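[job 0417] fold request received: TTC12 protein
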Amino acid sequence: LANLVQGLSSADPAVKEKAIAETEKKLHDQETTKEEDSKTTVDRTVINTRPSVKAFLAALEKDAKERAQCKKRNELLANALKEKGNEAFRKGDYATAIQRYTEGLEKLKDKQELYTNRAQAYLKMHEYEKAIGDCEWALKCNEKCIKAFFLMGKAHLALQHYSESRQCYEKLLQTAPHKQSLFEDCMSEVNLEEKRRRDEERAMEEAESGNLAAVSIKELLQKLGRPDQSILYYAGGIRLLAAAVTGCTEQTLFRTNNGFSLLRDNEAVRRGFCAERSSSAEVELSVSLLLLWQAVCSGNEVNQHLLLADPAVNAQLPELLSSGVAEIQKETLALISLYSENENGRRLLGKHQDLSSWLQILMRFVPYSDARAGSAMAILADLTAEARFTSQSGGLLPPGVLPLFTQLLASARQVNQAALACCVGIMGKLCAAVGTRGQLAECRQCWQACLQLLDQYLSNPAQCQECVFAVLGLMMNLLLESNVVIQGLAVEISGRCMSLLGDKHGGIVTRATGVLSCILPADSSALQAAVQGGVVKKMIKFLRVGGELTSSYALRTLCICSRSSRQAQEELVKADPRFSVLLKLLDSEDERLVGNAALCLGQCLAVPGAAASLLGSKVVMTLLKHAGGDAARTSVQENSAIALGKLCVAEPRHILQLRKLNGLAILSSSMKYVHST
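[job 0417] inference complete; emitting structure tokens
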């Protein structure tokens, strides 16, 4: 019938005529059959009406419309049943949810969402095989359904089918490469579960063999399960338990004997741990628990996962850090360090905690003179490197962080110097986010605190050296922004950096030069003050004896000064006779240095006698080589061509050498750059 309808609708007359003939034949055959069936035994009258092709097509069209209407009704019913199933699922009534999804599939058998939703409900009911079956049906409806791969992986994991679970997650990643983070979390879960099972099998063997540690841990946990004991009784028992956990086997025995249910099952322990820790007994209990968790979680990812899954522990960690009790804070930091020092641990913290809120909590440890400050900054450095940290913070500093940071900078002499330097470095790395960088760059108080720190160092170089080095790095990051605050402070910033150029610490000199190269373009007054302060002579000195990074900053500073100041051009020509420093840089393998050296040279050729001083040198050959070269940076060719053109304009005798080198064509093409400048 489909072929007949297609033929009748054809634009080709021959095909259409053939289809009509076949249709007439089919109708005739039907009439003959009906004729035999319609004869009566009374009068033998044939009751039959021959339908036309038009009627046949109308019947087909009517049937198609009815089918479409039926499908639309079924789709509406299936969607309604899906919503009822979703509502039941949200309420935790998984059996009803499964029933509604099933009724929806009876209405519409190819609705992928109903299969995956029912699979999710089956997972909640621990009917893992049925969940896998529904995921397979969902993939038949949509072979790229990532939810089906995800749920199927979960079901296989619950059945301890570790290889199959990994395969599901790998297919998920192949289908949706942007789900890399989800894939890593899922694979980590599979690895943890597989390790947990192996550890528990080994621990069971130890227990069955009469291992003393197994007996000891079990007995201690039983004693801690006794109700109505004093807080000190529980604290002492927990300390003994922590001492008994000496390795992987004991960690597994603690887990298999429900050690992590201690807070949940013992009201007195939970109440004492979650209290305000106003009494020495409550402090002792908290410290004992922290020591126990360190023992059972050290190097054990499975136990780390279970500990953070406890709502009471998860909620108390920030409170413990903010408790103000030195011993509690010390042990809490030690526990968190177990997580922050490895990738899976950091992922767990990011999953269960709002890491952005920890920024302010951990920064409050900077004033402490003991090991807490260093531990807190080490943890913060690890956590802020995680992508989840940036996603949770939205690329912005949480409220309260900027005032606290400014306060720490302002009181640099009273806080832990090493910790403050680390904190400044962390803030500098966070400036990679445009929003965070903008917040800091627009804060006048922050800039003034930085300048105050530089003043303190200049008055007493024996103090704050490490902090000054970090602050200069932060300032370079902030100067990627341009705003009125920076412009208003440009003279002060450049003045402090000029004073630091004579420092004995090479790193500070390098960074001060880097800040100068960033701040001088922001304000003409700052540039003029720097030129009058002898910046050109100092930059030439750095170019002669400095390292690669210092030379890069120094050359950039010279380019900025010589572009806008005739005095700077004249001082450069005087400080570098015959441009020996710049010519040496033109032979560098670093394209940035070559491009900036050519730019600086071209800007200084306007000084009378400058171009003539280069007669007899290889400058024409060098510039010609770069102008016609294939450097990755186009600025190398452009700046070299411009310098070559300016050289020949300022001193026509250079054209003779250019002609000998057959470089007139390059000179001609370079003139457009000269005119444009």
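[job 0417] notes: The radius of gyration is 39 Å. Confidence is low (pLDDT under 50) at residues 38-43, 45-49.
[job 0417] exit 0
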